[in-house]
Amino acid sequence: MTTATARAYPNIALVKYWGKQDEDLILPVAGSLSLTLDAFPTTTTVALDAATGTDTGTDTGIDTFSLNGAVATADATGRVTRFLDRVRELAGSETRATVTSTNEAPTGAGLASSASGFAALATAAAAAYGLDLDRRDLSRLARRGSGSASRSLVDGLAVWHAGDDAHSYAEAVAGPDMRMVIVTVDTAQKAVSSRAAMRRTALTSPFFPAWISSTEESLAAMLEACAADDFTRVGRITESHALRMHAVIQSCDPPIRYLAPTSVAVFDAVAALREQGLEAYSTADAGPNVAVIVRPEQAEDLRDALAGFGSVRLVGAGDGARLIDAGATAAAEARPGAGA
Ligand code: DP6
User: Which of 29, 58, 165, 175 is deepest in the core (most CB within 10 A)?
Assistant: First the structure.
């Protein structure tokens, strides 16, 4: 048996990814930019089990996947298997795997658990199946599981490029030092998955073409602001781009609204704090929770000011996905006389 374990952190986009130009390859309609966090990691072990290869009569054709100690749903397992099929294709392998994952963020609550999940799975599976991929190719591979996962391969600020399969990967960007306060308003699973909502937006929103062109403009402006180390400009683009994403999502048919009244109250409170000199800017993914960026020296004040809206967590920039155990058993097996 060959095993590998990887750890990855979620990322929160400051310029959002919303919409695919290719659903199979997971190529986005526009580029995006995010901050990889230093909290809420996913740790994933991929163990290859030679006894369940397709050459045995007992093979069911399905990998096993457990999440936070429980056997995962058929849907989640199917998504892992489709991802591993891509890894097996690259590795020329037919061996099935046992995938064990623990996730320290509430799954499905808009804290990007699919980003950390597929970044960790890509990193662990590539090692377990013996693929020698650099960070760029690992980002491209993670993208096939979930688009935003491509960015969790990167430390800190990451830009994920739109383009064809070869060119759609994430890489590091220098920018202002910042912290983020995550305000968890609700940990329930969202009613419509971001994948389904993205598709519905592309198919039914009359504003979708404008969303694509304005995202390209926002990303270009954001990259300039990052290069200029201009926190204020980064913040303004972040907040307006987030609200534009929620606007385009609300404009689809039937409509979808992810922001709850408390989420909107957090946006308002942050705007009021800005008036008082606490410079912070809000964003929210496909869920009700709000992430607020702030300069490091004002981070604790912001956390304290937002504590009444839900559970608050102050986070910073974290590392891209890393292998934390590269398969000691495999190495032992390779040594003559090491036994099974
Ligand atoms: C709102 O990466 O979860 O968080 O590619 O279909 O798996 P799939 O979507 P996913 O979408 C994330 C959307 C978002 C914005 C963002 O992270 O950029």
Answer: 175
Q: With a 6 A CB cut-off, is 142 part of the ligand 1 pocket?
A: no
Query: Ligand 1 atom closest to Cα of 112?
Result: 4
Name residue 44's beta-bridge partners.
6, 101
By residue range, what is the domain housing residue 310? Answer: 179-315
For residue 220, being part of any structural domain is answered with yes
- Residue 96 inside a domain? The answer is yes
Q: What is the mean pLDDT of each run of 10 residues along the chain (340 residues)?
A: 93 98 98 97 93 46 90 93 97 96 70 86 97 97 98 98 98 98 83 93 98 98 98 98 98 96 97 98 95 98 96 96 78 40
**Looking at ligand 1, which residue's alpha carbon is closest to its atom 12?**
148
3-state SS of 266-311 is HHHHHHHHHHCCCCEEEECCCCCCEEEEECHHHHHHHHHHHHHHCE
Pocket probe mutation, ligand 1, options 17, 212, 290, max atoms within 8 Å of Cβ:
17
The response to whether residue 146 sits with its C-beta less than 6 Å from ligand 1 reads yes
